[in-house]
């Protein structure tokens, strides 16, 4: 089963040039792993008073050796992704 990622529509526009990206593949590159993820959704920007401000969301099981338990937030830059 393909691991999945949810992108903000703004990040989808930056990475793909469009926001209708469900089903597209992204490769996430970290210091010790490279992983291909399928975009499962592209969502609108959260309301301003939300504590959850994000560019992308993945379940903690996608990178099990990185983060466990609680909320984890990641600042993504274009260098983190390779478009397919």
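^ Assign residues to that structure.
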């Amino acid at each position: 089963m393909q691991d999945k990622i949810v992108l903000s529509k703004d990040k989808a526009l930056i990475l793909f040039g469009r926001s209708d990206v469900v089903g597209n593949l992204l490769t996430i590159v970290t210091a010790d792993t490279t992983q291909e993820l399928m975009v499962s959704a592209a969502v609108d920007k959260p309301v301003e008073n939300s504590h959850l401000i994000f560019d992308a969301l993945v379940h903690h099981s996608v990178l099990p050796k990185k983060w466990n338990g609680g909320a984890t937030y990641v600042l993504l830059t274009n260098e983190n992704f390779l478009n397919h």
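Residues 4-83 form one domain.
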